[in-house]
Amino acid sequence: MTAAGESAPGAPGAAVRPVPVPDDVSAPYWAAAAGHRLVLARCSACAAFAIPPDQICPHCHSSTPGFVFEPVSGRGRVRSWTTIRQAFLPGFDRDVPFVLVDVELVEQEELRMVGRLLDGPDAPVRLGASVRAAFEDVAPGVAVPAFVLEGAE
Fold first, then answer.
1. CB 75 within 8 A of CB 106
2. pTM
3. Which residues contact 17 (CB under 8 A, 6 or more apart)?
C-alpha cells in the first residue's frame, strides 16, 4: 500500500487519497466503520452522543465523560450540502465533483455528521431529504462513513 501523497501504481503523479489515522479515542469508531457499522460515543454522565468525542463532554461538560461507543441507525435529514468542484487536498483529484452533506442524525437533536453523498453530484438532494449511512472503502480494511439518499441502493 502506498502512503498518502505517493503515486498509486498506474497513475503517474496522482496522489493517493488520505486515510484516517485512529488514536486511542477514535479507534472504536474507525474499527466499526471498517466493518460498515456506525457507532458513536455516548457520555456515561449525561447519555448524550458526541461527535467527535473529546476530553470533556460538550453537553454536560463532565471532565470524566467515560465515553462508550454504541451503534446508531445512521438515518438522518440533510441540513445543508455543498458540491466540491476543486480538490484542495492531495488524493481527491479523481473524486471531484462530489457532494458533502451536513446531516442531523435521528438519534439526538443537533447530532450532526458531515459526509460524502455517494449518490453523485447530480443527485436530487434537497433540504430535509432523508439519508442513511453508507460506507466508502478507501483502502484495504479502511472505510469512511458517508451517506446515500433514502431509498437509493
1. yes
2. 0.86
3. 4, 91, 92, 95, 138, 139
Residue located via cell numbers 454522565:
45
* Burial class of residue 13 in the structure, from the number of CB atoms within 10 Å of its CB (0-12 exposed, 13-18 middle, 19+ buried): exposed
Q: Beta partners for 144?
A: 136
Consecutive sets of 10 residues in the chain, 153 residues long: mean pLDDT of each?
Answer: 41 75 93 98 97 93 96 98 92 92 97 97 96 96 97 59
Cβ–Cβ under 8 Å, residues 68 and 32: no
State the Cα–Cα distance between residues 12 and 53, nearest whole angstrom.
39
